[in-house]
Q: What sequence folds into this?
């Protein structure tokens, strides 16, 4: 049992957006829980809060964090509060969450601008001499290229394995393939659908692909059209937003988690899958290769 700090400390966290199931929000909750275990209290604040139980994340205002010993500022895309945050006279540290290149979003001008502005704001924090962290070495390498020579890893915390009942499945039982993440071009869900189309005949009858998440409306429309055109409407499910209980249920019956993404800063869902003892198949691109650390099964898609 770890000894708690003799003098109580308070560490607050902030990210501009917070929503249920979103990776950065999950990271903030993990940090909060890990710090609480060693006697460090703190709240999570956000300017935009969606689909979270009341009291889990608090609405941000400039006087929210005056009572803390440290404010952890999570940074991803453009943050309109960046200058007001910098004026707070309290110790601060930056936690960077790697974002995909803006070239994936030439069709979405808002996202395109958000990604560019997010990178520019990192330069602002660099000139403020704020200590910088990332959730993986992949993110640390990005920070160092952007002028943070002393950037370090702040790992995800409190990821103890959870028990899962393992049963010997009948060979001809339907298989359930799963991917969890935002529906975005760089996540390549379209390639997952195509992969399932070509391999469906090799799976037992009734096997299904489940794509969990919401995201880019145009890309989501394209995915639904692709499913229809390939005749997979009875075999591919786009679940939309799920509750924590519903997501846990999907992990419980999944036979494999498959990720063909072109960009992952860390990819928390593969960790969640491994916690539930779900085998992971993935492309060794960007930060996910570091996250998997030799676990799971690597594969390549030729011509991609």
A:
């Amino acid at each position: 049992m770890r000894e708690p700090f003799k003098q109580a400390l308070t560490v607050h966290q902030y990210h501009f957006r917070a929503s249920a199931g979103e990776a950065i929000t999950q990271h903030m909750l993990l940090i909060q829980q890990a710090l609480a275990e060693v006697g460090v209290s703190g709240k999570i604040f956000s300017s935009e809060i969606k689909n979270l139980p009341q009291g889990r994340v608090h609405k941000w205002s400039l006087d929210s964090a005056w009572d803390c010993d440290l404010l952890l500022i999570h940074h991803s895309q453009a943050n309109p509060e960046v200058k007001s945050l910098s004026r707070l006279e309290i110790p601060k540290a930056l936690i960077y969450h790697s974002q995909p290149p803006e070239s994936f979003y030439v069709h979405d001008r808002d996202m395109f601008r958000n990604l560019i502005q997010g990178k520019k704001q990192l330069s602002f924090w660099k000139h403020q001499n704020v200590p910088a962290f990332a959730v993986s070495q992949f993110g640390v390498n990005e920070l160092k290229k952007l002028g943070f020579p002393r950037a370090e890893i702040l790992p995800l915390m409190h990821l103890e394995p959870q028990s899962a009942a393992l049963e010997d499945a009948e060979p001809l039982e339907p298989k359930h393939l799963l991917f969890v993440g935002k529906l975005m071009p760089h996540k390549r869900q379209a390639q997952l659908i195509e992969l399932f189309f070509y391999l469906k005949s090799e799976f037992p009858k009734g096997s299904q692909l489940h794509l969990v998440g919401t995201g880019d409306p145009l890309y989501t429309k394209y995915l639904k059209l692709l499913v229809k055109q390939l005749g997979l409407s009875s075999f591919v499910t786009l679940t939309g937003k799920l509750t924590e209980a519903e997501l846990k249920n999907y992990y419980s019956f999944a036979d494999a988690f498959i990720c063909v993404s072109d960009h992952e800063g860390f990819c928390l869902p593969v960790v969640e899958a491994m916690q539930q003892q779900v085998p992971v198949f993935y492309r060794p691109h960007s930060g996910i290769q570091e996250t998997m650390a030799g676990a799971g099964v690597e594969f390549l898609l030729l011509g991609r």
Q: What stands out?
A: The longest helix spans residues 109-127.
